[in-house]
Specification:
This protein has 429 residues and is mostly beta strands. The protein has a single domain (17-361, 387-415), classed as Porin (Beta Barrel), CATH 2.40.160. It contains 2 helices and 20 strands. The protein has helices spanning 2-14, 41-44, and strands spanning 34-35, 74-87, 92-109, 113-121, 123-135, 139-164, 168-193, 196-223, 229-237, 240-256, 259-277, 280-289, 293-302, 308-309, 312-313, 319-329, 343-357, 360-376, 381-393, 402-415. Strands 2-3-4-6-7-8-9-12-13-16-17-18-19-20 form a 14-stranded antiparallel β-barrel. Strand 10 (240-256) and strand 11 (259-277) form a beta hairpin. The radius of gyration is 24 Å and the shape is elongated.
């Protein structure tokens, strides 16, 4: 088993890094790229409806207050495999990508506190778009747009439980977020005469960021009857200005294989400034029945209209997302039979995205399902978490691209102590 875990981690690190590359959605062209959720596969399988959840052996990065509920040291690593079908009025394309979704470590501090650290992608950028044009005066030419990179986020947070008794639990949390990474976009124009390249020009825009921001969380749990608990959670990320450096380069070139043969540099400049990241509010409600069932609901609003790149506004809309999910386990006892200890998960997610074209705000809808498969050893509980998400973004029409996507989530969670149930009231006083 230990060899399997080591192999798993080695493959993760060898595969590279975070969600940076050129194989992604053309919608990552807008703003700072496609947002990437900080949720791990166990919560992704529940539609990411997790703001009100605090579990003894799972790290919930969406609400730092939940860290107070950790009862075991926990290490988690998560992978995403994505398959995307892109449909335009004139063509259809299939692409795929694989990346590490995140790495996290959490642990309890005494009886009323817990902390967690993580690193993973915040946004993804990856597109390569070619648009041929014909002009009666200018002749044949084409535009090529390309983008790569993405912004990453390293976090460290602490949660505390000022109220803790048999009937009520109040948790408060704060999390520091260090944003870093780059986005690089390019626009190239190539002119043709009799199918031969005459001139080519390219403009490259690269933005690097690095700075700190904070978010705040609160979570309240109350016992209703018998073993039924209800919980409510809030997490807020305020608007933040992140230090950034923007570099621009314009040149003419002659295409030569994989590299450009530069003929003349036209513009080269560097500008210091800020990238303004939007505020985000998440609210959640969850009900736990008899330690076997969890039903959870989430609402998340992100003010993408506030986004600015080096003090330049970006034309995006505020996004709103609703999510619902469930988790079921037949027996929470650590020595339960294998089939009884598997966690079954499912969920649903609907979003008015940040993208708006001609007054039409693009919608995204998806369904999720997954399993948590535990492997219990004397001093270690290892859980393999699997999730799948199937959905679509955009709409059919004459101008807009429609994306049909399938995401496979694979995660590994390790707890070096005897497992003490999930979402159950702690026995610590």
């Amino acid at each position: 088993m230990n060899k399997l875990i080591i192999a798993f981690l080695f493959v993760a690190l060898y595969q590279g890094a975070w969600a940076q590359g050129t194989e992604g959605s053309p919608y990552s062209f807008y703003g700072i790229g496609d947002p990437n959720s900080s949720s791990f596969s166990n919560y992704k399988a529940m539609g990411e409806a997790q703001t009100a959840l605090s579990e003894p052996a799972y790290i919930n990065l969406k609400n730092s207050a939940s860290f107070a509920g950790l009862r075991n040291p926990t290490f988690a690593i998560d992978f995403t495999m994505n398959w995307l079908n892109i449909e335009s009025p004139s063509s259809s394309q299939n692409i795929s990508s694989q990346y590490i979704n995140g790495v996290s470590f959490g642990f309890p501090i005494g009886k009323r506190f817990g902390a967690a650290f993580s690193v993973g992608p915040y946004t993804r950028i990856g597109y390569d778009i070619t648009s041929p044009q014909i002009d009666p005066i200018l002749g044949n030419y084409k535009f090529t747009y390309a983008g790569e990179g993405g912004y990453n986020r390293a976090t460290g947070g602490i949660g505390g439980m000022p109220i803790k008794n048999d009937e009520n639990q109040l948790m408060l949390g704060v999390q520091a977020n260090y944003y870093f990474g780059f986005s690089q976009t390019s626009r190239a124009v190539t002119d043709f005469v009799d199918d031969a390249t005459v001139t080519s020009s390219k403009m490259i825009n690269r933005t690097n960021i690095k700075d700190l921001a904070v978010d705040f969380g609160i979570l309240y749990r109350r016992k209703l009857i018998n073993k039924t608990w209800i919980s409510a959670g809030l997490n807020f990320k305020p608007t933040t200005n992140i230090s950034a450096t923007n570099q621009q380069l314009s040149y003419t070139y002659r295409p030569s294989g994989l590299n450009d043969q530069i003929i003349d540099t036209v513009i080269e400049s560097t500008e210091e400034g800020n990238v303004k990241l939007p505020n985000e509010l998440s609210a959640g409600l969850a009900i736990q029945f008899d330690e076997n069932w969890i039903i959870s609901f989430d609402y998340t609003s992100t003010a993408w209209s506030e986004l600015q790149l080096i003090s330049t506004p970006v034309s995006l809309s505020n996004s709103n997302q609703i999510a619902a999910g469930f988790q079921y386990i037949a027996n929470t006892d650590a020595v339960a039979k294998f089939l009884q200890s598997i966690r079954y998960r499912g969920g649903f997610k609907y979003e008015n995205t940040r993208l708006n074209f001609g007054g039409t705000q693009l919608k995204s809808i998806s369904g999720t399902a997954g399993l948590g498969i535990p492997i219990q050893k004397t001093k270690m509980l290892t859980t393999f978490n699997f999730g799948i998400e199937v959905g679509s973004r955009g709409r059919d029409g004459t101008t807009l691209v429609k994306e049909n996507f399938t995401n496979l989530y694979i995660g590994l969670s390790m707890n070096p102590h005897k497992f003490d149930g999930w979402f159950r009231r702690s026995k610590y006083n």
